[in-house]
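// run 5 | inverse folding | seed 20
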């Protein structure tokens, strides 16, 4: 069944850019309908771009079994690196809505992503105990 989603212009833009960039990292588009585009790597990493209706589109990384395990963002980058160099770069450029951040994130942290997908419990425990406001404030103030 197909649904006629309200057209947030960034959804189409993100899907188009992802379709150009993700194949460079070994991903193939496996689905593009019903308000989402799915890209899968040969290691079974799934990237989902989901239409948010009138809201911003959502981007998730996961597996077919758990498609929305986490999102590429500064907090997740902090989990991987205890700093946020990619997030800082894009904050300075004021450019987050063209899939370049997500591409750089996936490219740099691909092995860490594979580790989370093979054993998500440590990440999920960390996520449960994390003070997102504190990390977001560190990122915003470039103090990490």
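// decoded
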């Amino acid at each position: 069944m197909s649904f006629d989603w309200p057209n947030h212009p960034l959804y189409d833009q993100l899907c188009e850019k992802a379709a150009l960039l993700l194949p460079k990292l070994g991903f193939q588009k496996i689905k593009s309908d019903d308000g989402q585009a799915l890209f899968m790597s040969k290691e079974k990493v799934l990237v989902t771009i989901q239409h948010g209706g009138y809201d911003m589109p959502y981007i998730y990384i996961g597996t077919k079994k758990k498609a929305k395990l986490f999102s590429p963002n500064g907090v997740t980058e902090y989990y991987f690196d205890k700093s946020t160099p990619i997030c800082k770069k894009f904050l300075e450029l004021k450019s987050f809505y063209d899939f370049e951040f997500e591409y750089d994130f996936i490219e740099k942290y691909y092995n860490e992503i594979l580790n989370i997908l093979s054993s998500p419990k440590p990440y999920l425990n960390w996520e449960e105990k994390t003070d997102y406001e504190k990390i977001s404030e560190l990122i915003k103030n470039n103090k990490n």
